[in-house]
Amino acid sequence: MKTVLITGASSGYGRQTALHFHEQGWNVIATMRTPREGVLPESDRLRIVELDVTKPDSITAAFDAAGAIDVLVNNAGVPSISVFEGTSMDRVREVFETNTFGVMATTQAVLPRFRERGSGVVVNVTSSVVLGHMPLSAVYKASKMAIEGFTASLALELAPFGVQAKTVEPGACLTTNFAARATNGASLDELVPAPYVPWAEKAMADFTVQELFTRESDVAETVWGAVHDTTGQLRFPAGPDAVQLAQAK
């Protein structure tokens, strides 16, 4: 029976991906920065492990606790909706610390195991912001584009050892708490410099009324498909809006 370790599994895409792999009969290591009871069903094939991807000691402890795994899904991330001029560099570093460096750190932790065994899959969850020109996402997009480039080169390095690296690119999921987490409950006029407010309000309004959007299940099913793909495909858009963007690109 195979085992998957999923980061950021307390809600949204990560939680749904954990549920999907569990339903397919896999062992699941669902990691969370702050483990909570009741988030996932009790099962002898599902374990919740504490993991903060920004802390090296936490990464080491989590992988030691997990034991042998077949797949790493790097899903943990922090959202960011912002105008770059009004974004502090401390916030920029905070976003990159989780979305970029955290993904690299967890990946580096698992690679010796995969390489020595001659098998394993790393799936890095990015975003459809990498597929098109989207407003209010300069910092967030930069953090995710970095992982796209990282994964493309990593895949070449790992191929001689039978190990795979891929990205899944979710579209806009209007049923998650992404926007609320990104703004921390603040209004746009509190978040962006005054000259940008009219433009930012229109951009946000257009975002929330789009006809095509992604569901958590779209992402879970796409991660599952990416793990089992044998064609050598590197990037997997998830959700109808992401697929449309990928086709247009």
Tell me what you see in this structure:
This protein is of the alpha/beta class. Helices cover 47% and strands 15% of the residues. It has helices spanning 12-23, 56-66, 89-117, 138-158, 178-183, 188-191, 197-208, 216-228, 240-248, and strands spanning 3-6, 27-32, 46-50, 71-74, 120-125, 163-170, 235-238. Strands 3-2-1-4-5-6-7 form a 7-stranded parallel beta sheet, sandwiched between helices. Strand 1, helix 1 (12-23) and strand 2 form a beta-alpha-beta unit. Helix 1 (12-23) packs across helix 8 (216-228). The mean pLDDT is 93.
Short characterization:
This protein has 249 residues and is of the alpha/beta class.
Strand line-up in the sheet with most strands: 3-2-1-4-5-6-7
- What integer is the average pLDDT? 93
Order of helices and strands: EHEEHEHEHEHHHHEH
Low-confidence segments, ≥5 residues, pLDDT <50?
none
State the secondary-structure class.
Answer: alpha/beta
User: What is the percentage of strand-forming residues?
Assistant: 5-15%
- The number of strands is 7
Task: Tell me the number of helical segments per DSSP (H or I, 4 or more residues long).
Answer: 9
- In one word, what is the shape? globular
Radius of gyration, in angstroms, nearest whole number? 18 Å
Helix content: 40-55%
Largest sheet: 7 strands, parallel
Distance between the termini: 38 Å
